[in-house]
Each structure stands twice: as structure tokens, then as C-alpha cells.
């Protein structure tokens, strides 16, 4: 565990990007290992989403579409940089995206599961990740890649665009993972545009390509997904805030 902590901390520490939390030091004392990192004053994206869900006006219970795409775009840019440095996050989710209070800048945090692409093949047999956001290959304990993070981005994007993810109810995280593997492309029961009337059906293609069960059918890079989202925003959201 100590070796893994050191390896993953060092993988994150090589990254320097305005949308990735800065790691200042990785070290140890006689009693524990530690990471010293940037303090981000603000809230997590998860908290912002939960605050919106409680809005008294139903139409305000999701984040504005432009805001969603702008946040996801910044996260994609940061992940594209990380992947270029051979680092995969492996636990992208709203709770790990911090929104800086005075700039509204999204910052990716918690690289606790991050790993170097060159080390992927050497991972243990332990399945790691957050069940809802885990790509099928993670569930099967197959090698992770940039497309693994892209799947998690697809889940997060879908979740931000609608009031509730259209998936079957489940009792335990294990049930969720088994359902994801069994249902494959039918894991989601509705399209985003069926749930949010402000969305053009073109966004469905973007979301579901990112969420393809087969990694080879997803966007190959974060920059490809970013280009698709920017094109959608520029074409369909000109008059929306």
C-alpha cells in the first residue's frame, strides 16, 4: 500500500495545469505518508448540483446547459493534458471536481487512483473506482486508458444535463456494476433530450458515444469529445445562458 501511495502521488505531482490541483510535496514521517497540495476555496461540483436539485422552481433544478458544457470543457482540457503526460485519473466524478469560489474555475482533485499509463498492466486484481462512474473495463479489471476517463466524463455530463439519470433502481453497488455489464448499451433507459426539452437531439449522439460499452467505440481522446461539445454549444446554444 505504501508503494502504491507513493507511485500514485508522484503520478499526480508531475502535472501542472490551471484546472488540476497542484501537488507540492509527497513525503513520509515515522508514522504516516502524506501529500501536501493546493488549498482550493469553494465547493465541489457535486455540492453545486445538489444545491440546484433543491431549487423551488423545477426548471432551475439542473445547471444551465452552457455552464455545464463550459465546466466539462475545462475538465476535458485538463484531462487531455494529463493523458498527454501518461496519467489516467480513474475516478472522475462531480465530488472530485472543485469549483473555485472567486473564479468559478473547475479544478480536478483527488488523484488517489491516478496511475501512469505505463503502470496500468501492473495493477493489482483489486477493482478500484466509484461504481456509477466506472467504465465497463474497470469493472472487469481490464487495463484502463484515456477512454476510461472519457466514460466517466460521459456519465458526469449526462448527470448534469438532466434531473436524474435514467437507470433502473438498484440495492447495492454490486447490483449496479452487474447491471452495467449485463445491459451494456441499454443501461440508460432514455436519451438526454427526452428528459430536458432545452437539449437538441444532437447532444444524445455526443453523450452516448462517450458512454459506449466498448472502449473502442468511444472518443479516442478528450480533445475529440471537447471539439464535439464546443461545436454543439456554438451551433445550438447561442441564445441560451
Q: Can you put this structure into words, describing what you see?
A:
There is one protein chain. By secondary structure, this protein is α+β, with helices and mostly antiparallel strands. It has one domain (41-236): Transferase(Phosphotransferase) domain 1 (Transferase(Phosphotransferase), domain 1, Orthogonal Bundle). The protein is built from nine helices and seven strands; from the N terminus they run H-E-E-E-H-H-E-E-E-E-H-H-H-H-H-H. It is globular, with a radius of gyration of 18 Å. The termini are far apart. The model is unreliable at 121-125 (pLDDT under 50).
pLDDT < 50 runs, ≥5 residues: 121-125
- Overall structural domain count: 1
For the sheet with most strands, the description reads:
3 strands, antiparallel
Portion of residues in beta strands equals: 5-15%
Succession of helices and strands: HEEEHHEEEEHHHHHH
User: What spatial form do the alpha-carbon principal axes imply?
Assistant: globular
Instruction: Quickly count the helices.
Output: 9
CATH fold-level label: Transferase(Phosphotransferase), domain 1
Estimated structural class: alpha+beta
Approximate helicity band:
40-55%
Alpha-carbon distance between the two ends: 47 Å
The CATH class assignment is Mainly Alpha
> What's the CATH H-level superfamily name?
Transferase(Phosphotransferase) domain 1
Radius of gyration: 18 Å
User: Which CATH architecture is right?
Assistant: Orthogonal Bundle
| Integer average pLDDT | 90
User: How do the strands line up in the largest sheet?
Assistant: 3-5-6
